[in-house]
Amino acid sequence: MTTAGWLQIAIFIGIVGLLTRPLGGYLARVYAGERTFLQPLLRPIETALYRIAGVKPDLEQSWYQYAGTLLLFHALGTAALYGLLRLQSWLPLNPQDLPPVSPDLALNTAVSFVTNTSWQSYSGETTLSYASQMAGITVQSFLSVAAGIAVAVAFIRGFARRRSATIGNFWVDLTRGTLYVLLPICVVAALFLVAAGVPQTLAPPAEVTTLDGNTQVIARGPVATQEVIKLMSGDGGGFFNVNSAHPFENPTPLTNLAEVVLIMVLGAALTNCFGRMVGSERQGWALLGVMAILFGLGVGALYPLEAAGNPALTALQPGQTAGAQRPGGNMEGKEMRFGIAGSALFANASTASSDGAVNSMHDSFLPLSGGILLANMMVDEVIVGAPGSGLFGMLLFCIVTVFLGGLMIGRTPEYAGKKMRSSEIKMTILALLVVPAATLGLAAVACVVEPGLAGLGNAGPHGYSEILYAYTSAAATNGSAFAGLNANSPFYNLTLALAMFAGRFLVIVPVLAIAGSLAAQPIISRSAGTLPTDGALYVFFLLGVIVIVGGLTYLPALALGPIVESLQVTNGMLY
Amino acid sequence: MLDLIMLLLVVVCFGLATAYASLCEYLLARPTGEDGSL
User: Fold this and answer.
1) Cα angle: A285, vertex A288, A291; to 5 degrees
2) Does any CB of chain A come closer than 8 Å to the CB of residue B38?
3) Spatial contact of A81 and A113, defined as CB atoms under 8 Å apart
4) H/E/C letters for each residue in A35-50?
5) Does B2 touch chain A (CB under 8 A)?
6) So what's the pLDDT on residue A78?
7) Full-model pTM
8) What count of other Cβ atoms lies within 10 Å of the Cβ of residue A113?
9) Which helix (H) or strand (E) holds B5?
10) Is the dihedral of CA A546, A549, A550, A552 positive or negative?
11) A244, A259 in Cβ contact below 8 A?
């Protein structure tokens, strides 16, 4: 470990902390339809879009209509992306003459990007045409995150409104999120990345002659525009197979820091947006506090673990000790330009935030570090999470926490001015059970059937971790991969698509149901018997619930993989 | 043929999600008895 490494992590936390309040305020104004500095420029476009689509922006929807619209929109999006991938060889912007994507892989990819997961069972630069990358992948990256934020905002309205039959208009929320939030940030950040060396071109891959006279093909394309939305959306699907480890996606330590900030900043700002919309910014800070503690625990363990190096190799590789000319530690699968700190920070942010982008190979992390990355995803992407889904995931845990608090003292639980009745608790449990059921159920199947075992790159607990990681990543809509596993087979493509679908839509539906139910309630005033949900006591109560629920659900699965492997590594057994 | 099967899978999955939403609506609308609030 180095001071510079810790400083890098501290700077990242400082930047995200500083941006949270102004961006949160901006988000609150955008979704309330209030005036923002971009309104003179974007309002005419917004109005024109409503007119073209026949949307009446003042006509609000019940939660059921909102959910139905969202499902229809994503069903059409899935079909459209599937069609694009299957027809890419007949479409323009295919300078490499790439063939159509196979049906099972096309379905997996379509579901992956529509669900904001971005699991990729393929190498982007050798599988997808520019048209597929730009009109398919990038478009869905925008729309899926805009939909996720829309659901979170609708959920917040459930808390903020009194005796209301509606929770907003999906089309309006989707449009405002895309126009006022995502596009402006993407334009600015994409220009920054281009200036830093990320390519943005429609030219075919470059052919160069190497020093020894051979010809080498260097893939390039419209990378910068996809890069920003990949990071900011919680999507994580890279232009290149190795994602942000590729120098064309993430060329310098400065871009690395900027990319980690982009991964986390919108999700963090949404906590402030929540606080403002329910009338108490302290509520938002309490949520961000829990997220920050969980994030700090993750990166605070990950960096020292990786910096200490592999215990089985200590005797063989004195280079594991940091020095002036070497980063030391476990550098397998990591880029020299990022080192241990930059890799640990990125990996922790990516798995905590549900983004899934990688700048190092998670399969090469030490077993316990791999366990931390798994645990980040297993807590249901509440450590900031993807924009939108991270916040509503955290709010689900808040409901469970006040429910448990209510049980302790025999009162009907309350949160942010709303009573949590049995109907809301039932919906919450439905939403929270989906991800573990999909993760553990499908991973168990993959561990015992031949097509599941055929994809393994490693034996023993490491191979099991690869399978567990794949389904955890898919169901938590993270999308990062543990490498090792060859998931481009009909079995993995279809079962992972199922996990992604369940992890996204079967959570969103009960979340919107809770929003509708809460919106119909009056707002109750705080009394002496109300559990304060904006103080330190509640922060640690919520933290305990998240850790215990996550621990009870997943500890046995983790024990069979990363934990047992870690014990074996200390005895010199490697996989 | 495979394309039709895949698209059918999409339709079935989103259809099931819509049915799931209807189930949630039914559960919310069902009288659950009064909570023992203080």
Assistant:
1) 155
2) yes
3) yes
4) CCCCHHHHHHHHHHHH
5) yes
6) 95
7) 0.91
8) 29
9) helix B2-29
10) positive
11) yes
What A402-411 contacts at long range (C-beta under 8 Å, 24+ apart), as own/partner pairs, is: A402/A531, A402/A533, A403/A428, A404/A545, A405/A531, A405/A541, A406/A531, A409/A529, A410/B36, A410/B38, A411/A529, A411/B37, A411/B38
Instruction: Tell me the nearest-neighbour CA distance from A443 into chain B, angstroms.
Output: 20
**Alpha-carbon span A479 to A471, nearest angstrom:** 9
- Report the alpha-carbon distance of residue A352 to residue A250 in Å, rounded: 20
Chain CA centroid to CA A282, Å: 25
Q: Identify the CA nearest to A569 among candidates A373, A371, A366.
A: A366
Token duo for residue A181:
């939030």
User: Can you give the length of chain A in residues?
Assistant: 575
Contact present, A538 and A455 (Cβ < 8 Å): no
Q: C-alpha distances in angstroms, A401 versus A56, A239, A284, A455?
A: 38, 40, 16, 40
At A346-364, the pLDDT tens digits run: 999 988 887 778 889 888 8
Q: Which of A427, A423, A363, A348 minimizes the C-alpha distance to A395?
A: A427
> pLDDT tens digit string along A546-556?
999 888 889 99
Other C-beta atoms lying within 10 Å of the C-beta of residue A57: 15
CA distance B12 to chain A (A): 10
Whether the complex's predicted ipTM is more than 0.85 is answered with yes
The runs of H, that is alpha helices, within A197-245 are 223-232
Provide the strand spans (E) within A399-456.
414-415, 418-419
**Residues of chain B positioned with their CB less than 8 A from the CB of A430:** 24
How do residues B1-19 score in pLDDT, each as one tens digit? Answer: 888 999 999 999 999 999 9
Residue A30 near residue A36 (C-beta atoms within 8 A): yes
As given in the structure block, the two tokens for residue A52 are 């073209």
Q: Do B21 and A513 touch (CB under 8 A)?
A: yes
Q: Is the backbone of residue A527 left (phi > 0), alpha (psi -120 to 50) or beta?
A: beta
